[in-house]
Amino acid sequence: MADELRKLEVGILVCPGYLPVDVIGAHTLLGSQPEVNVHLVWKNLDEIAGAPNFPTRATTTFEECPDDLDVLLAGAVPAEIFEDAETLEFLADRGGRAKWVAGVCMGSLLMGAAGLLRGYRATTNFHAYDLLPYYGATLVPTNRVVTDRNRITAGPASGSMEIGLRLIRDLRSTEAARRSELNWEYAPEPLFGVGTPELAGPELAAVSIRDFAGEHTVLQGVSERAAERLGVVVPTA
User: Fold this and answer.
1) Which of 30, 130, 134, 207 would disulfide-bridge 227, Cβ 3.0–4.6 Å?
2) Helices 158-171 and 24-31: crossing angle, nearest 10°?
3) What's the rounded Cα separation, in Å, for the pair 117 and 109?
4) Rounded CA gap, 110 and 101, in Å?
5) Which tens digits make up the pLDDT trace of 74-91?
6) Which residues form the catalytic set?
7) For 237, what's the count of Cα atoms within 13 Å in the CB-facing half-sphere?
8) How many whole angstroms from its chain centre is CA 204?
9) What is the distance between the alpha carbons of residues 177 and 159, in angstroms, rounded to a whole number?
10) What is the domain-level CATH number for residue 187?
């Protein structure tokens, strides 16, 4: 019982242009547990704009964030954050000690850019499956949760809820996670059932990939530079 009530420290990265949908589920689930400090972390406490149009303020700066976190989590962020030295240094430092390192959607790639996924199995948004190997990770092509030792990754949006439940199970108890799932009535029933390329079919999947093409081109360059910086040899097809 004493261990269940140990104060937990959770760090969630926010930054200009971050996607709140990728972190709000885990934030809500973990933050609703007793004895949990959730830190929204950025360089400063100035107001920033999440995407789309979601005003946010960090609660904790990089410098003030606890050294030893139970969870370090990031969702999708703009491409320039992948090459921001201060952000990568923070993630590498806290992630190297955290009990759990979590990435939702493109947050997986960001953790990779900080050197935290090398040698781990992981997943991300299906639009960027091909980019994970640039960070030394082994791709598991699924929008569900992938756990490898203390690294936990998932696809976008609902992946944040899925990760949150699994972390509650590990850090608190299965019963606490079951109660949380019920309390928040997490029982998704997709309206159209096309939430993966396999379910959507090739025609709709191709449209989605075209929609993401511009961002993928930018991330391709970022990923190639990351591989060079990290000394990762990307396997050829």
Assistant:
1) 134
2) 30
3) 8
4) 11
5) 999 999 999 999 999 999
6) 105
7) 2
8) 25
9) 15
10) 3.40.50.880
- Cα–Cα distance measured from residue 163 to residue 84, given in angstroms and rounded to the nearest whole number: 26
Please check whether residue 191 lies inside any domain of the structure. Answer: yes
Which residue range is the domain that position 192 belongs to? 8-230
Q: CA dist 9 to 27, 73, 137, 158, 210, Å?
A: 12, 11, 26, 22, 40
* CB 23 within 8 Å of CB 14: yes
pLDDT tens per residue across span 145-182 = 999 999 999 999 999 999 999 999 999 999 999 999 99
Measure CA of the first residue to CA of the last residue in the chain; give whole Å.
51
C-alpha distance from residue 96 to each of 10, 67, 90, 135, 139 (Å): 14, 10, 10, 16, 21
Domain count, the chain: 1
Which tokens belong to 186? 């997490």
For residue 131, what are its two tokens? 């980019």
Chain-centre distance of CA 14, in angstroms? 11
**Residue positions counted in the chain:** 237
The answer on pLDDT for 237 being more than 80 is no
Tell me whether residue 237 is in a domain.
no
Asked if residue 83 belongs to a domain, the reply is yes
Query: What distance in Å separates the CA atoms of residue 98 and residue 114, rounded to the nearest whole number?
Result: 14
Q: What is the arithmetic mean of pLDDT over 65-69?
A: 98
Residue identified by tokens 């396997």 is 235
Secondary structure (H, E, C), 28-78: HHHHCCCCEEEEEEECCCCEEEECCCEEEECCEECCCCCCCCCEEEECCCC
Res 235 pLDDT > 90: no
